[in-house]
Amino acid sequence: MLDAAMPIEIPPHLLSAARVVASRRDMLHRLPRNCAFVEVGVGIGVFTHEVMTICAPRSFVAIDDFGLDRVELLWGRPSAEVFEGWGHQGFYEHRFEREIGTGLVTVIRSGSAAGIAALPDDSVDVIYVDADHTYDAVRADLQACLPKVKSSGRIIVNDYVLTPADASGLRFGVIDATNEFMIAHDFAMEYFVLQQDMFCDVVITRSANINRAGFNQTDEHAAAVRRGLERRIAELERSSSWRITAPLRRASRLLRRR
User: What average pLDDT does the segment 209-229 reach?
Assistant: First the structure.
């Protein structure tokens, strides 16, 4: 194991395909639809709602210890007021009552690593890790993810940043634990996701999923653009103007050869 006190540098080949995207919403538009999605650390369900809206997953697992109602203040408000008297888990389950009722959403009340470990192996397309940000906790969460994520799957790590937004002086272990995991298990960075105050996310996937051009072959956004271009080319080739100008194109090619 690498020393968590030392900065861990990612080898260039694990970064060569990485692309910067504008926000988490932009990132979600680039993820596969109809996927098996797991969110670890769901808070009050804001990100869950965005995943449901944009990715339309076929299954969604929410893992959390649901302990935020034990905190006196959340975002400057009494936690009892934030959760409208429901408590943390009750508030989340009430918000997604319909999705839970249909079986789309499954809620696991657990610590993060233990909750991840309870998932079936090779069952997850995308897992979003946003739990305890200490080095040991992030390291344990990522190790637990490894057998659960499909060979083509992605792990998204939240708050890839050194320090929290308060004056505590604490050091997050997210960067060190993530970099160490990437090196140890040959995961490449696919996206560096910009976010407010630079509390960015990173999307990582097994390096074998990145093709020689540096793009993930399951990138939904790139695939949609490619399909659109292919449709436009096909329409152009069927058009009368394309047929009429065919002799001119042939003459142009002959002139270029001379």
Answer: 60
